[in-house]
Amino acid sequence: MRVLGIDPGSETLGWGVIEGTGLKYAAVDFGTVRSDTKKAFSERLLTVYNGVADVIEKFGPDVVSIEDTFYAKNVSVAMKLGQVRGVILLLAGQRGIEIAEYAPRLIKQTIVGHGNAEKQQVGEMVKLLLRLKAAPKPHDTADALAIAICHFHHAGMRDRIAKAK
User: Fold this and answer.
1) Is 36 a catalytic residue?
2) Domains and CATH numbers, the chain
3) What b/e sequence results for 84-107 when a residue is b if at least 16 CB atoms lie within 10 Å of its CB, and e otherwise?
């Protein structure tokens, strides 16, 4: 299985591709899609769409794993992130790719062991779990890889439960 993890962002969107089976997986590649904050938001959404479309075309993921919506004090920020998520969900749907959504606290709990983990802790655990030489930078890429790892752990559990029945 090949999973594309997405950490949605309107300025910097992190992505990470992981491949494997069950709980055995490895990083394939990771990076960011950056949008010019001086451009209109609609143009930034197009940049996100095109950037993620290129990643999907290059790596051919079986699943797009994305961070679910979260509570934000700033309504404007939450709305923009929702629009970025919508672009990613649309793109995956157009390509017929399975979509998995995970809450930020569940991702942190899965990767670090508690839902209030700091970004540095997530990065260090991603480094250990993927046997990388250094924590991925910027943190958006580490978060995207964490989202993909989270899918491997939870999808594997769903598969084991289904087989047990």
Assistant:
1) no
2) 2-164 (3.30.420.10)
3) bbebbbebbeeeeeeebebebebb
